[in-house]
Amino acid sequence: xxxxxxxAELKSRISDMELVEAAYGxxxxxxxxxxxxxxxxxCGKYHHMLSPNGITSRCIRYWENLExxxxxxxxxxxxxDGDPLDNFFCLPLGNTPPS
Length: 99
What we know:
Elements: H1 3-12, E1 18-20, E2 29-36, H2 37-40, H3 57-72, E3 76-79, E4 86-92
Antiparallel strand pairs: 1-2, 2-4, 3-4
């Protein structure tokens, strides 16, 4: 997916975001589950930095585009506390994403 397509998908899910109460000294935020790393990654793999099978340029490009799209909407990506394969798109409270 291109950054434009990813950004459109993230933006379409903003209205479904849930409030996440402040924890561990962090501020409250809005968040939505966007998928497992295994389902989001174009190669269907979890790329650990010590993995012998490496990461492809296609996968690198996808994850960079996902991160940039989230940032352009005023948000960020987080992984799950219980399962680091879970990925969430987060926004600060009161943020109105740009068009």
